[in-house]
Amino acid sequence: MPIKPRFFTPAEVAAHNTADDLWVSFLGKVCDLSPLMTRYRGDILLLPIMEFAGKDIGSWFDPETKDILKHVDPLTNCVRYYTPRGRFVHVPPGGPCSDWDSDTGQPWWRDPGYEVGLLTAKARWIRVVNTLTSQEQQLEVCSEETLAEILQRYLRYNGHAHSYTWKHNGAILDMSRTLVQNNVPDNDRELEQLRLDRDLYVPSILLHFNDDLTEA
Question: Which InterPro entries match (predicted)?
Fold first, then answer.
């Protein structure tokens, strides 16, 4: 049974960038706002969200309060939400407004119903090499993922991935642990400091075929 992803890369979030399929990330969370877009279809207050479809909007929020940033309005001297891109859905107007529905319930940025997972703190690349067929595939994965979760990503390229033993530098990998926990280091920072091409130093995971065949 496929494992539901816990973490997503920025590239995966960026792939959902239309009104009918719109994801954003903020404060470490990844949210699918497609239902919000459908509910308020045609509303001008969706425009700021549309502008950032598939992107990180963490700059909109106060990391301590987990709420939209606030400021003192220079015209009214009142504290209000700071929305330099324009007011968006569930943000109240700056003053009295006859068409404002104050009974909107929980604002979308506090509603866990929109959350689909977490944004990885660090995406990294690995090279998966099938020693039986000599086929190799580069995968961008999340540093927090276990090898079992990475295997789920690889299944699209090899439906029998469960029938292989995964190794790195001759050592069998523990599928319940992450790459770093399996001594597969992430040297991106060091390579960047040395101004070396990271693409030339992508760590390889070797897949060794077992006798049994699992079903695709």
Answer: Cyt_B5-like_heme/steroid-bd, Cyt_B5-like_heme/steroid_sf, Cytochrome_b5_domain
pLDDT at residue 101 is higher than 70: no
List C-alpha distances in Å: 105 to 71, 91, 144, 173, 210.
23, 12, 33, 47, 54
Q: DSSP string covering 18-84, please?
A: ETTEEEEEETTEEEE-HHHHHHTTT-GGGHHHHHTTTSB-GGGEETTTTEE-EEE-TTT--EEE--T
Tokens linked to 55: 């992107």
pLDDT digits (tens, 9 = 90+) for 130-161: 999 999 999 999 999 999 999 999 999 999 99
Read off φ and ψ for residue 172, nearest 5 degrees.
-70, 130
Kindly report the backbone phi and psi dihedral angles of residue 154, in degrees, each rounded to the nearest multiple of 5, phi listed first.
Answer: -80, -20
Return phi, psi of residue 100, to 5°: -85, 120
Secondary structure percentages of the chain, helix, strand, coil, to 5: 25, 30, 50
Mean predicted confidence (pLDDT) in 117-134 = 96
The pLDDT of residue 166 is above 80: yes
As a whole number of angstroms, the distance between CA 31 and CA 108 comes to 9
Report d(CA 216, CA 14) in Å as an integer.
29
Helix-then-strand count for the chain, H and E: 5, 14
Amino acid at 145: E
